[in-house]
């Protein structure tokens, strides 16, 4: 015990004795009907003030002790952003690698046996895109894209995405006059964040390059569809232009129906007009993204 602590303890005991003595004197004077001496009243005042300050001193010492414990305790690690988290809104893509077990991703042409299952996934994709653009499909939803039309069109290429032995999604490619257009790339929600969407794009890009009929890939994405924009940019596509909303009476369908003179696109636009009746003032423009298919070679 330090000298300061000993002096403090001694003062406390002296004050205890004084308090007892002054209280006894006060009680005696009360019972004997005598006046309380001035010195006793002074000592009572001193003792009362002393005990009040001692109580505050004890509280202050406890607070200081708690603060000292907190200062000496090891600091809690602050949460840090993980560098390998999925990009916001990107379908199946991570910055570095996939989450979960790696499974081979491949594309298979859609046949009649899978037509109904593919149509369901295409409809889910369209509904999700409409939701991202602020539209809620009605209960009596009618398909915007018809897989039957795709199978009959020799300029349409529809594929299912297989991840291992499981059907993970669907992609669709259309041959246009100057480029191949990606109509959609869709991965089931329960299989996202596994690099499937990006792998499917790479396979689709290789397929388009092997066809050799067009020199670039293109996709149309609504300006309000940030998820689609981030996905296409993550696989190397670049924005080349932005289209404003169409004149009143027509519907800008974002990345769903980009070409008016194409039969499949025209039918899809008609279905969307009949089903959604979207107010043109609530629709934003759309972005055009492209990626070259030409392979640069050096002599």
Automatic annotation (TrEMBL):
The lineage of its organism: Bacteria, Bacillati, Bacillota, Bacilli, Bacillales. One of its GO terms (molecular function) is acyltransferase activity, transferring groups other than amino-acyl groups. The keyword Electron transport does not apply. InterPro entries: Acyl_CoA_acyltransferase (IPR016181), GNAT_dom (IPR000182). Signal peptide: none annotated. Residues 116-258 form the N-acetyltransferase domain. It comes from Alicyclobacillus mengziensis. The chain crosses the membrane at residues 12-32, 38-56. SUPFAM superfamilies: Acyl-CoA N-acyltransferases (Nat) (SSF55729). Keywords: Membrane, Transmembrane, Transmembrane helix. This is GNAT family N-acetyltransferase.
């Amino acid at each position: 015990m330090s000298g300061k602590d000993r002096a403090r303890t001694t003062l406390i005991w002296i004050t205890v004795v004084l308090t007892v003595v002054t209280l006894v004197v006060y009680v005696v004077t009360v019972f004997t009907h005598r006046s309380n001496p001035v010195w006793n009243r002074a000592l009572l005042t001193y003792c009362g003030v002393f005990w009040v300050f001692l109580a505050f001193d004890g509280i202050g010492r406890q607070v200081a002790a708690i603060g000292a414990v907190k200062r000496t305790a090891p600091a809690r690690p602050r949460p840090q952003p993980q560098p390998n988290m999925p990009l916001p809104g990107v379908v199946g893509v991570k910055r570095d690698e996939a989450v979960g077990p790696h499974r081979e991703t491949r594309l298979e042409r859609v046949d009649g046996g899978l037509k109904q299952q593919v149509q369901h996934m295409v409809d889910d994709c369209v509904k999700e895109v409409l939701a991202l653009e602020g539209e809620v499909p009605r209960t009596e939803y009618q398909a915007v894209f018809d897989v039957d039309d795709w199978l009959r069109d020799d300029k349409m290429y529809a594929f299912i995405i297989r991840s291992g032995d499981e059907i993970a999604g669907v992609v669709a490619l259309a041959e246009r006059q100057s480029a191949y257009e990606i109509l959609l790339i869709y991965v089931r929600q329960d299989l996202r964040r596994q690099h499937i969407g990006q792998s499917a794009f790479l396979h689709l890009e290789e397929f388009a390059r092997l066809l050799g009929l067009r020199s670039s890939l293109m996709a149309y994405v609504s300006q309000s569809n940030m998820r689609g924009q981030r996905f296409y940019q993550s696989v190397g596509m670049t924005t080349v232009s932005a289209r404003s909303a169409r004149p009143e009476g027509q519907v800008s369908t974002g990345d769903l129906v980009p070409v008016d003179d194409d039969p499949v696109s025209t039918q899809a636009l008609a279905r969307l007009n009949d089903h959604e009746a979207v107010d043109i003032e609530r629709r934003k423009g759309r972005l055009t993204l492209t990626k070259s298919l030409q392979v640069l070679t050096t002599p």
